Each structure stands twice: as C-alpha cells, then as structure tokens.
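Example A, followed by Example B.
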Amino acid sequence: MKRKIIAGLLLAGLTGNAYSTPLQEDSESILLTLGDTNSARVTTCEEFIALRRSGETVAGYPDMPDRFMTAARDSLIDCYLTHYALDHRLTEITPAPKTPTLKDVVDHFPATAAIAISDEEVAKVKTQYQGKTISQKDDDLKPDGDNRLVSAKNAEGYRISGMRVFKDKAGNLTQFITLGSFVTEGSWGTTTTYRIIAQDKPVWEIEEITENSPL
C-alpha cells in the first residue's frame, strides 16, 4: 500500500529552506519501501523527517538503478545531517574545512570502512585487520591525479565525495565525511557517510550514518 505524507504528519518546527527544498535536483519524489513493507513517496526533507518521526524506516528503493539509488540515499542522509545539526543546535561551517584530507581518512579510518563487497570479504576484514586502518589493508594506495587514492594491487580506490562540519556554541566540531569507494576494473561504486567521534588514537573512532540512523 502506498502512503502519502500529508500535512498532518509534518513535524512542528521543521521550517525554512533546509526542509522545504526538494531532496533531488529534478524535484522528483523518491519512492521508498518501508520497514513495514508499505511504501511512501517523499519529495522534501520535511516529508522525510516526518516519515522517520512517525516510526518508519527505509527498507529499499524499488525499481531504482544502483547509481540513482546511491544519489537518492545520499540525499536522504544529507537531510538527516541537516536535521541532526538543527536538533543539536549546531552551526554549519561553510565552506567546509579542507581537513581531514583523503590521506588522513585512509590512514586513520578503521579497516572495517574499507571496500568489502561480499560477506566473505567483510568477515575477512573483521578477523584479519582488527585494529588496523584502511591504508594498512590497502597498503599500496596512491594518488591517481583525480583526487582519488587507488590500489593497483586490489583494483579499488577511495575518494571524499562529501564533507559537512558543524560547531556548537563552545566551538566544538562535529564532522561528517562521505567516503566514496569504487573498483577500477568494473563499474561498482558506493558511498558511506561517517561521523568522526574521536581522533585521539591512531585508529579513529567513527560511526556510520544511514537514512535510518536514530533521530
């Protein structure tokens, strides 16, 4: 059953351009399969946050090609970050700082954030690279001249596809980085957004952010 988001669901206080601007550049709605197997269409950030506030979660993007699905998911996550900042009374720093760099990310993000396409690869990373970083797993990463780091040995690479940084009234920073991962021998690619929690150890503490992260 398809569900329309109606005005009565809209969250009080969610006002302003950040919420009313269309999620996608073409203003097309995004069709979502929900956790309860129903479906819904959302067009604005306001509608998506209202949907999440009503207790729903996103289970899928029906009949959407991978590259369009990635863009749709990223737009929902970006909406989540906007809501997170407003909910925590954070101010966005624009333009975003140039650090951490991609080199910083691969040198300090845990290896669990490295490319692992199959379940077997995920299990291998967890067992063989516990306490290691992405660059310790992919130890031949080199710049390719296109703002990316590429491993010739593993035919894969990384790029920063997005960064949003916020500060509170005391000047403390909250950093979100969207890391793009791809293979060089094929067309597969994906993006994952992380919040940097702590940088006081060689392997940084990070948290993956999804469209279903807690509000």
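Example B, a separate protein, is given below in the same form.
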Amino acid sequence: MIALQRHILGTCLAIGLLLTVLFPWYYGDFVTWSGHDESLTLAPVLHDNHISNVEIVVASTKKENTKWLSTYLPEWKTNIYVVDDSKASLTVPVNKGHEAMVYLTYIIDHYDHLPSTVLFIHASRFAWHNDDPDYDAIPTLRNLQLPYLQESGYVNLRCVWVIGCPAEIRPFEDEANGDDAQLSTKSIYKQAFEELFPDLPVPEVVAVGCCSQFGVTRQTIQHRPRSDYLRYRQWLLETPLDDSLSGRVFEFAWHNGACDGRWNFPAFSTLPEGWPRIGWEGEERNFNGPLE
C-alpha cells in the first residue's frame, strides 16, 4: 500500500500541464480584461548570468497581441510562432496539436544551438491559467527563479495544484472504462503514451497542473536526442485524433519528455478572503480588473 501511495504521489508530483473540462473552451485564454492596468512599470535591466541566455517561445495566432513581451520583458529574446499564418517569419508545418506543435518545432529547429534556458508560453498576457492572482503572466515570468530552473532543469510555470491533482488520469482504468463512441484524453492516454514513450512504463496515475507553460534548460532538452522530438511531432502530424485531444496528451506528457516523469510538485497557498480586492495583510489592492 505504501509503495502504491508513493507511486501515485510521484506521478502526481510530475508536471504535465492539463486544461480541464470545467472550462467551456479548453484552450481558451478567455479572461476578458477590459479594466486592467497596462501601465505596469517596465522590468529593470537584468544582469544575472542566468538571464543573459534566455529565450521565450510563444504559441500564438494572428489575432493575438504579443507586444507586451517586448515592452515588459525586453531582456529576453522572443520567438513568436503564428500558427495560422503560413507567411509569418516563424510558423509551424501544420496548425495542429495546439501549442505542442510550436514547442516541438522550436526544439527541432534549434536543437544544436539552444540557449541555456527556454520558456514555453502562450501568447496572452492575461489568462485564467496564469499563476498570478491577477491572471497576469508578467509577474510570473519576472519572478521566475532562473538559478533554481538551471539547477532543477525543468519547472512548470503554474504552481497551483488545481486543476489536475491528485489523480486526474488512471491510464489503465480509464482505457478499460472508455467509451469508443466518445473519445476522451483519459481513454486514449495509455495508447498515446505507449506510442510516444516506448522506453518508459505507463504510470498508474497521472496528475498535473495545467496548462502547457514551462521552463527547461538546454541540458534537459538535449537529454533526449533530436530524433525523439521529430518522432513526437510526426505523431502529431499523423494522428487522427482531434487537436483538442492530441494537444491534451502533450499537456499530460511534457514532463516525461523532459525528466522522465519525475518532478516535485510545489506547495501552494490559498488566497485571502476578499481577494482580489483585499490582500494578504487586509490591505486594499485597488484592483480594477474583472471579478470573473
């Protein structure tokens, strides 16, 4: 029993990055932020050696505004992929598999000359899954402890356990109980895992914090040969699965490619009563964003 608990915990402590069916559009960055403050102070010039060789990889569409990256994070090189524009300077072979196609394409194209640190993110500055009480991606990126990332090799940019823990997918049980007429991530995960990671045992339990935004080091990426990433992308290109399913498979699986599924999930904190208007010390935060 103890061994099983440890196995479950170990898998739960892995990252995978899952969006949940509790939201009407699984991949939507649908926080409407009509009242947010765009006058956030510019980031200070940073001179840490760990920061001097950082790149951000952004999965975007033509309609998304990504100017906030160069405005507030000018120290970092950005690689903005536009998945629905074949004429964009950075794009993908096929707009399929959501952000997974962007991430894999970047890794494949830059494998031999990667920066020391790569941050993979979505295009929206404000989104419900950003691990910031105000849903703002900038504080999350600014406060990222790059020395820790260099030491650990891989971190999820979302520390909050919900949604996805403590046991989101049980591959063996979910495959057996799956409905062939209505495929789900749970029912297809075991087969997809076996196809993507034939060198790894299928975990008994998979639990992850959403949502496909993470940082990795060059050494972590190159822990696997470039041929593996080519194979992952080919799987995306060839799979008959709908994008929402193939993309979710990778949300549950990035940690396997990066660190063989072993990653300590961080502790999390609850928000104070009255948030977001009231802060931890009972102070008024002058919050002017939406409350939904």
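On Example B: The chain has eleven helices and five strands.
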